[in-house]
User: Fold this.
Amino acid sequence: MTQLLTIGKALNLGLRRAMEDDAKVVLMGEDIGRLGGVFRITDGLQKDFGEDRVVDTPLAEAGILGTAVGLAMRGYRPVCEIQFDGFVFPAYNQIVTQVAKIHARSRGRLAMPIVIRIPFGGGIGAVEHHSESPEAYFAHTPGLKVVAVSNPVDAYWGIQQAIAHPDPVVFLEPKRRYWDKGEVDTDATPDPLLAARVVRAGDDVTVLAYGPMVKTALQAAEAAAEEGRSLEVVDLRAISPLDLDPVVESVRRTGRCVVVHEAPVTLGLGAEIAARITESCFHSLEAPVLRVGGYDTPYPPSKLEEEYLPDLDRVLDAVDRAMEF
Assistant:
């Protein structure tokens, strides 16, 4: 059955289906029960599945993840909601020293099938600590899978695949895109969770993005087409591990690449991606791999965030620079 869904509603339905399919799936987080979460992603789930499976936790992110570790050891599949990206740091110790390492530490005897849902990125006019892009911290940590969805189809299927995955998954949700709509076939066969996807074919420049920047990259491609340039847009979808096969195929054909993300450019995901592309496509590159991202400053007050966030013009400027070589 095909439905027109927002990303937020697709996540809600995906969580519901996962809970129906597996009684061991337990949701945990601040205000996710009676309120349904600040973005209403878990709306109605506590009413239908009960307070034992949709748990309103104290405001204690370290406690949420520590409890999830114990539940996972006993065979449950906890899904932890971090209310906003900037709130994840109190739980960082649990995530990188316990969640990411227990499977290896126990020589495979203990699994950690934990999903950590994090609304990430800016663009909603929020106050401090509500618009961060912390993905590089987690992508740098062995033992974690890191996924960033950009559309309702991946939201619906991706959350179910993450919950079913045997390893811990940091599941990044682009909060300013929660209300973007798309057609979702709830009976389809989904793409693999950790696979990149070409979302617009092109010949001149490869543009790589994930999460909220995929829409920006597609808008840039549309604008470039009006000027006679053909941009190929690749949605990375998973940022740890990176699926670079479609990327390498694309860059070897176009000879140019621009990587876009909201996080600061310095030591961001774009740096790793650029290095890997250079290693694999050196003899095909007509220009250096260029990066577009946030500035090396703390995320600014909401009145300035439009100046901070990468937009269509900054992407097109990088495309212009790549074409000059």
About this structure: Residues 197-324 form a domain with the Rossmann fold fold (CATH 3.40.50.920).
